[in-house]
Amino acid sequence: VKIQTPPGMRDYYPEDMRLQNWLFDAWRAASRSFGFQEYEGPIFEFLDLYRAKSGDEIVAQLFNFRDRGDREFAIRPEMTPTLARMVAARANALPRPIKWFSMPRMCRAEKPQRGRLREFFQWNVDTLGSDDALADAEVIATLIAFVRNVGLTSADVSVRINSRPLMSAIFAGFGVASDAVAAAFALVDRFEKLAAAEFDAQWNAALGASVQAATVRDLLTTASREDCTALALKAGAAGQAAADGFDAVLARLGDLGVAEFARFSPAIVRGLAYYTGVVFELHATAIPLRALCGGGRYDDLTSLFGGPKISGVGFGMGDAPVLEALKELGRLPTPMDTLDAFVIDADAACFQAALGVCGELRASGLTAEFSYKRQPIGKQLKQASDRRARYAVIVGAEIAVKDMTSGEQRTIARADVPAALLRHSSAR
Amino acid sequence: VKIQTPPGMRDYYPEDMRLQNWLFDAWRAASRSFGFQEYEGPIFEFLDLYRAKSGDEIVAQLFNFRDRGDREFAIRPEMTPTLARMVAARANALPRPIKWFSMPRMCRAEKPQRGRLREFFQWNVDTLGSDDALADAEVIATLIAFVRNVGLTSADVSVRINSRPLMSAIFAGFGVASDAVAAAFALVDRFEKLAAAEFDAQWNAALGASVQAATVRDLLTTASREDCTALALKAGAAGQAAADGFDAVLARLGDLGVAEFARFSPAIVRGLAYYTGVVFELHATAIPLRALCGGGRYDDLTSLFGGPKISGVGFGMGDAPVLEALKELGRLPTPMDTLDAFVIDADAACFQAALGVCGELRASGLTAEFSYKRQPIGKQLKQASDRRARYAVIVGAEIAVKDMTSGEQRTIARADVPAALLRHSSAR
Q1: Do B359 and A257 touch (CB under 8 A)?
Q2: Rounded to whole angstroms, what are the CA distances from A303 to A56, B10, B32, B228?
Q3: Average model confidence (pLDDT) for chain A?
Q4: Which of A194, A405, B131, B157 has most Cβ atoms within 10 angstroms of its Cβ?
Q5: Shortest CA distance to A8 belongs to which of A118, A114, A122, A120?
Q6: For the whole model, what pTM was predicted?
Q7: Is ipTM beyond 0.90?
Q8: A44 to chain B nearest CA, in Å?
Q9: Which residues make beta-bridge pairs with A31?
């Protein structure tokens, strides 16, 4: 039986896994430097967890199944419900602010087609239990720490940022009824993907002609932050509070040294209903329309799952979009498999001694291998080179250590070999 | 809605995740020191992949489901079929020996009850494409490298080891028909969990009375390796080859410095049908009957999945049994969440400057936090201590760095702060 990889799923051969681990390490390093703590959850949850957040429509997008006890489960399509469930369960015991990150594997029942993955990993960073603008700014600065760690600058990417309360105030000023704001946001979220005529038609259908679609298009395309602040202030106290809150976040981005990445973008509102504050997306300058990451502030996710109301701010970044973007930008590394040492027997009679030396190197935390085949030194040196060993350790009557880069070779007393290699290696 | 963690699944709060990452790091370090390369596969596979290996009975033990295209999938219950599929797909391109490891998440549809997990992680280490006894010995030595890394000695654990060809030869000498050997192995695999009378009854039922069950019980309980070799040699050339092959593996365990852990155990044969050579289990001396790990040599896994026949040797170790055993042995660490630095403002007017210093520390790769609340230095120092910061960095008219362990405090020029902390930290 020849059985394939399931459609939309990925095999990680060692070269793929090295790249994936490189990404995981970069995500983890950025999160940890900001003091975020790692958490994880189960690969599947009760189906009701997703129904509670997203309604029955979500079910068709999930891989779901029943156990023999007829309980309904679904493989997680996102981490937010798990995060909310976990925080709700220990709401009173967890010290605030709760600064957590995760890099979960998840699945969505996409129709299998080229480029549409059914399985992916997603970096999630969230701070819960603080309404301070510092929380919003730290989450965004963590994203930028990752961006900088992988070698990107503010010329390559920007954080397109906006405030939902600010936009709500502006729409109120325009005369959009408060119960129609959600519909307006849903349309704004698709604005950049729609032709003008199409946007106008949908706007008129959803919101009537009381607010000119052309006015909204102008706002989304050309309004500066000053324009938007001025418009919001027309809505009175709510507009003032929205403008002040947004200003505070932008000021903290400056304090944290990442202001150069932030770009005010009135067309960014995000599609999810639960955002109630700042919203943002990471975009590569050279790759328009495709967000590499999205996030924002929410007033309450936890009470939906049986806990007290806890506000928070966070984002999610999928692995596939960011790896593709790095590739397109020519910034994708090719992590190589390397060894600290390749141990060689000068002749077959020395092989047992070579194994002993290899064992000592490994016990010191160094990575070391040897040839399974007894063969001349030259062939073993070729293997050492193929395996990208930093040193060849040649075990004969005495022990010679050859630096595989410089070609330099010197004799070392057997007892000193591990220490000598450790000194020159990036061993853990 | 109060929704629970699904039965048999685990939430990893930060303290749980630190322990889990400690285990993953120990698995990964041992694997890498021996030159094994990491791979991964999809969380679910075509259901037929498991049917191909284990028949229809396996289906009830899996979480399986269909997509809208009516394809049948199952969440992976083990890694071996994925490994075999991946190796088979690139059999001709992969340099031999293929030395791979993985730490996959997997699920089994266990009946939910106390201590029975439906989801777990399993360390898999395999060498394919070599029949050399070095391959068997290296895989076992990798297991021992992990054991030693987590602080266990040969007084705590042993590798109970046996050879299926040796046992086949002995059974042949006893007069067990060759088509009955598999049934004999299945019974031997349960020998230590059965009372003598029960074993005898099952042996007689399965294998008839031609071979005395008591003779077999004696063999499994008391026979030394010399006894077993002598018995195997009675079966002629096959017995000789079996004894020689087993001797070669044991000798290589000596060469790799792990002989002290190996304990010959005729009752260890493993339950899986595909083992064809050496078989072994890791056991804690103080916790009998519960294997922490099982493995062995197999002639062929790949041709089952459409590839050429490739032999190999490997093992799997679940996370839960090993963590439980370490706990029972009092060797489980409590990894703590720590920070390199906690940055403190001497008064609120210095907070912006403090954020700038914090940003520089983070950019240097250090982990750093600050208080979201403006409050007196004493309260911030208390927070630094609660967060287990190594240093408190107090930003005022000048910058003071306080070593939180010794209490020693000194003034440092702002430009020198990151370098000073890096010098004294275990930063990545």
Answers
A1: yes
A2: 19, 22, 45, 66
A3: 94
A4: B157
A5: A118
A6: 0.96
A7: yes
A8: 8
A9: none
